[in-house]
Structures are given as structure tokens and as C-alpha cells.
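URGENT: need a sanity check before tomorrow's submission.

F., can you look over the Short-chain dehydrogenase/reductase SDR record below? I want to be sure the sequence and structure line up before it goes out.
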Amino acid sequence: MGRVQGKVAFITGAGRGQGRSHAVRLAEEGADIIAVDLCEDLETIGYPMATPEDLEETKNLVEKTGQRIVTAKADVREVAQLRSALEAGLAEFGKVDVVVAQAGVAGMKGQPPMQAWTDGINTNLIGTINAIQVALPHLTEGASIIATASAAALMDAHNKPNPGGDPGGMGYMVSKRMISEYVHYLATEIAVRGMRANVIHPTNCNTDMLQSEPMYRSFRPDLEKPTRADAEPVFGVQQAMKVNYVEPEDISNAVLWLASDESRYVTGMQLRVDAGGYLKWYDYHV
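C-alpha cells as predicted:
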């Protein structure tokens, strides 16, 4: 028996990166998957989004585990599209037990700047809320909701040396911080119903979002056109452990634990998978 044998997981942003990794990891442990992704580029985001071919590859990888999968092209910003995708999965599997709200974009250095703010907020925050709330009517006792925020949500943002200089970058941090608060209060309301909700905060994760020109520029603002070789050594500034980034599988293992009954009494938690990054920023407090 797998650790999530017989469960059905609804995963957004599943075309590649962390979302694909979560889909495959949960399938390896016995879950069937409802996988959605936008599969289109956003003009304000300075790196390519997943493609329809990427989502098809996620399907292939899940099916290789022996589990079933339903995929759909859907925009998390649009409730109707998400609801239609989930209903297609429900028609196939008859239920949903786990929600993994993974879809997200990083709009730093995006142009035009305020549209980059809007696209980040709408995808990361509103998209997470949409994914969870279309699923809520179908969740029953024992269900687990998992939202992806970021170590950026936990950083002290009071020091703003250049207000308005990068709305897309600030929108990323704000969206992730607000996801954390939303899930905290949601967890309180659903606890009495035997359901759980938790947030995972990854540090730098080795995906297309991190390995992108806008991210390189964010870490190396001293260079006009920094490369991966220029930026990667600086990625380590965010972690206490001696790593520049973690891998998607490191986050997927946390997702698996929160999806499984092993964590049946764990709810309302802000789970940091940050290689000790938080330890660098804050003193101990309860």
C-alpha cells in the first residue's frame, strides 16, 4: 500500500517544475491525479511558461507509475475554467481528497510594472484561492489542502530602499504572504469538519522560475546581463545550509507527507522547506 493509496489529488501548475514533481510523487505512492496548467505564456513574465507538451509529459510520467490522470488546460485566474477541469476529474474518479495549489509566477522586473504586479497577485494569490474554493464543496473528512507560498513570504519587507522600483517582485512577496494568512484562517474553519490546510514555504527551488533571466538580474543587480554562472553562487545567500537551491523533489516529499494520513493531526502549519533560511533572518520566538 502506498502512503496516499486510493486518494485523488487536484494539482495546479502541474505542467512542469514543482507541480509535475508533486503529481509524480503522489502517483508513485498510489494517488490518482487531476492535473491542470495554463500552458500559455504571460507577457509580463520574463521566462516561458509550461507548454501543452509539458503537461502531456506530466501525464506520461504519472501513467508510468500505474496510476490514472486527467489533465486540463486551465487558467487559475478564471474560476469557471478551474471548476470545469475539476469536474472532469470528478467525472473520472468520483471524488477529490487532496488539493495542491501550486501554480505560481514570479513577476520581478516585469513590464509594464503594474501589470506584472496584477498578473502575480491574480495568479499566485487569487489562483490559489480559486483552486481551493472550487474544491471545497467536494472535500470531506480527512481531506488535505496544501498551498505553496515561499520563503519570500517570511522575509522582513519593512525595509524598502526603492519603493515602486519593482512592483512585480513585490507582488510576488505580497501574494505569498497573503496565501499564508488565508490558509491560516481557512484551516481554523475546516478543522472542526475533520479537514486540514497547510502551507509549504520553499526556498530557491531548481525550476524554470529560478533559472531565468529576471531571477538572475534580481540576484545580480550589479551586472547588466547576468548568466546562471553569475547568479547561482549568490542563490546561497538565502539559505543557512550550504546549498544554492533545493530540488522540486524536496518539496514533493513534504507535499506527500501533508497529503498522507501520517500528518492527520497537522493543520494550520507554515512548513518551511528552506534549508535553514528562516534561521538567518529571525531570532527564536514561539
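My own read: DSSP finds nine helices and seven strands in the chain. The domain at 8-209+247-274 is CATH 3.40.50.720 (Rossmann fold). If you see anything odd, call me.
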